[in-house]
Design brief:
30% of the residues lie in helices and 27% in strands. The chain has 537 residues and is an alpha/beta fold.
């Protein structure tokens, strides 16, 4: 009864499912990916990939190749109905080590994700394979599958539904999608061989017909137009109508070839629960949001980054199965917040009347004359930053404003003794628990017993040093060489962390790069022990 074909069965090989499979493969976890389609969809659905998602790709070596084939750090301009620019949003900061706003071609990303899976001996991708049934017991999950006319089963310890907005897995679990669907529809048009020289995304707010256009790699461009209430959605994609809508953007040249023109509803929904027993929901199977802030796929990346390390720790026997409950408590509230934020952004695009549009535009321009407000808008600081106050964190609920506990740890450039030249912090830390000391001699704050518990979790102790110091003091070498990994702070970003929050001298960073706890060095034995206990219980 307990014979397993794999540790984790993943239903769906879209961006979320394929990324999860890569993360599990990197951790040595056996996984089978079951994909109903025989090929990748030939046109993009998602178009934006943010710094957090690129950071996830970094963890298994795909960040640079995807970024090299994306339009990096692309600005976005917001216009009023008259075409006047309200704001030019161009974030320049890279707190997580990568550009914050990038435009990509989804078929290219999916091809690279699937190719990369082939390098993991523990991961199998089965296409043209439909999941027809799912049941679970106290030991595992059984999935009924059909490939062509052949029916069989897959037995796994856990299963993950990454099968999109119409998720079969979610339906079998009986999980309700909470929220609503906007009463209006949008026409989405993709063109190829684009000739419009506009190297930015553009949003045209309007009380009549809001619209947007987004340049994409390889000569593609996306247009989206709201369908008015009195218009027939069935006629919206009529070729002549599509040409008329596009011609305003190409007044002096032919309209580029249209690849597709489809009508979409905009959903704002979040699953009532992200896990039921041994089955988990990720990506669109767990939440759906309108595309106004480009966070649908990126939220799915956050899901799988959160879930993968926990599954790996449990499968490997390093952590208790109880930690898997934290996936729901950490991700669901944040995903819901992002859905609501994207929905509010869409409401801003369409004013109720020309008068309210003029008032809104005046207020928007006025706000940008205030230095703090201008930076808040132009540097995308209005984007909700995920923060976990429940789950595998220590003291997050009680931590004061500005604390990184429960938030993603920054990723500056650093040096390390075993590598020539600077590199990103994650490339040094690896996909493991890291205790990062920002003050000297952090290793001395830990007992041999606690260091042993950290090592049992595959963790590492990291000692941050000034960039000008490339050699350990000889008085420390004998007793600390085997305990701590030296990291040299190239740009002073890690130094600035402790200057801004003196009480946070040591950070405990999880494999998903979220901060589990922070404390003074004198309290490290107790606080690290509390975090490790969450894993071991």
């Amino acid at each position: 009864m307990n014979e397993f074909d794999c540790d984790v069965a993943i239903v769906g090989a879209g961006p979320a499912g394929a990324t999860l499979a890569n993360l599990l493969g990197e951790a040595g976890v056996s996984a089978v990916v079951l994909e109903a389609s025989g090929s990748i969809v030939a046109y993009p659905r998602a178009v934006g990939i943010d710094d957090e998602a690129i950071r996830t790709l970094q963890s298994f070596g795909l960040a640079q190749v995807v970024l090299d084939n994306s339009l990096q750090n692309m600005p976005i301009r917001y216009h009023d109905a008259a075409g006047t620019v309200l704001a030019h949003v161009a974030p320049s900061a890279q707190p997580y080590g990568w550009p914050r706003r990038n435009l990509f071609y989804q078929p290219y990303l999916e091809e690279r994700l699937r190719e990369h899976l082939a390098g993991y001996p523990t991961v199998e991708l089965r296409t043209d394979t439909e999941v027809t049934g799912l049941s679970q017991d106290e030991d595992g999950v059984r999935l009924g599958i059909r490939t062509g006319t052949t029916e069989s089963t897959v037995r796994a310890r856990y299963a993950v539904g990454a099968d999109g907005g119409r998720s079969f897995v979610r339906g079998v679990l009986g999980t309700e999608m909470l929220g609503d669907t906007a009463p209006v529809k949008w026409l989405v048009i993709d063109v190829e061989k684009d000739t419009w020289d506009a190297p930015y995304s553009a949003v045209y707010t309007s009380s009549v017909r809001p619209s947007m256009t987004i340049p994409l790699p390889f000569g593609y461009r996306r247009f989206e137009f709201q369908i008015r209430a009195e218009e027939d959605p069935a006629a919206a994609s009529d070729p002549d109508r599509v040409q008329r809508l596009l011609k305003r953007f190409y007044p002096d040249s032919p309209v580029p070839p249209v690849v597709r023109a489809d009508v979409y509803w905009h959903h704002s929904r979040t699953a009532a629960e992200f896990s039921v027993g041994r089955v988990f929901l990720v990506g669109d199977a767990a939440h759906m949001q309108p595309p106004f802030f480009g966070q649908g796929m990126n939220s799915g990346f956050r899901d799988v980054t959160n879930l993968a390390w926990k599954l790996a720790a449990v499968v490997d026997g390093r952590a208790s199965e109880r930690i898997l409950a934290s996936y729901d408590s950490e991700r669901r509230s944040n995903a819901s917040e992002m859905v609501k934020f994207a929905t509010r952004m869409g409401q801003m695009y369409k004013a109720k009347s020309p008068l309210t549009e003029r008032v809104r535009s005046t207020l928007f321009r006025g706000a940008q004359k205030v230095p703090g407000a201008r930076d808040y808008i132009l540097q995308m600081k209005h984007k909700p930053v995920p923060r976990y106050t429940e789950g595998l964190v220590v003291g997050a609920a009680a931590s004061q404003g500005g604390s990184l506990v429960g938030r993603a740890f920054p990723q500056p450039m650093v040096h390390s003794a075993d590598h020539d030249g600077a590199r990103r912090l994650d490339d040094v830390l690896g996909s493991r628990i890291a205790v990062v000391g920002l003050v000297p001699d952090v290793a001395r704050a830990l007992s041999t017993h606690t260091v042993g518990r950290l090592r049992a979790q595959g963790g590492v102790l990291v000692q941050v040093r000034p960039a000008t110091v490339y050699q350990r003091d000889s008085t420390e070498a004998a007793d600390l060489a085997s305990e701590a990994l030296d990291v040299f702070d190239v740009d002073g970003n890690l130094r600035d962390l402790v200057l801004s929050r003196p009480a946070d001298e040591v950070y405990m960073v999880r494999p998903d790069r979220y901060v589990a706890a922070a404390c003074r060095a004198a309290d490290l034995e107790r606080v690290l022990g509390a975090f490790l206990a969450l894993l071991e219980q």
